[in-house]
Write a structure and sequence with these properties.
Number of strands: 13
Strand content: 35-45%
CATH class of the largest domain: Mainly Beta
Number of helices: 1
Number of domains: 2
Helix content: under 10%
Mean pLDDT: 85
CATH superfamily of the largest domain: RimM
Largest sheet: 7 strands, antiparallel
Oligomer: single chain
Distance between the termini: 44 Å
Structural class: mainly beta
Low-confidence stretches: 178-185
Shape: elongated
Length: 185
């Protein structure tokens, strides 16, 4: 039932240039915010580029860093939005009941009564805490806070998560695409 774990994990993203000398502004996704640099060289999502990383200072929303092969402000700005990945084997071992967000993508999602809700499409942090997207083909996407109260069970080995959304989030017709969006009847 378990799915293969990704061989790489997204540990940071380039948020743009910082200053005028080629530094990049980097947002960390690691539990210890500075640790992303410890896993360098980091790769772009497509694996086409590798970057050495030297953090120079903390800045609003992350860190300023010198990235190998990024000599100018323009080169750093051109990389805005690039997600940076580290091979899983460079990351520290996980404690019991810990997991990487990448391991959740594709897991089956069920409500607390066992009814299927779809699959985990994404886990993101837009600044106010992690959110989890549940959905699938022909299903509406449900975006929920990724908290222990809303996602009480994460079972990587069984390939599933259990979702306990607030009652007002799940309408009786959840999961069905609107057949007549914008049609008043």
């Amino acid at each position: 039932m378990s799915q293969p774990r990704p061989s790489r994990v997204c540990v940071a993203a380039i948020a743009g240039a910082y200053g005028v000398r080629g530094e990049a502004r980097v947002k960390s996704f690691t539990a210890d915010p500075l640790a992303f640099a410890d896993y360098a060289p980091l790769e772009s999502e497509d694996g086409a580029r590798q970057f050495s990383v030297k953090v120079t200072r903390p800045v609003a929303g992350g860190f300023a860093a010198r990235l190998g092969g990024v000599p100018t402000r323009e080169a750093a700005e051109a990389l805005k939005g690039t997600r940076l990945y580290a091979p899983r084997d460079r990351l520290p071992p996980l404690e019991t009941d810990e997991f990487y967000h990448a391991d959740l993508i594709g897991l089956a999602a069920f409500d607390t009564g066992g009814a299927p809700l779809g699959r985990v499409l994404a886990v993101d942090d837009f600044g106010a805490g992690d959110v989890i997207d549940i959905g699938g083909p022909g299903l509406r996407t449900l975006t929920l806070p990724f908290t222990r109260a809303v996602v009480p069970t994460v079972d990587i080995a069984q390939g599933r998560v259990v979702i306990d959304p607030p009652a007002e989030v799940i309408a009786p017709d959840f999961g069905k695409e609107d057949a007549a969006d914008g049609d008043d009847g």
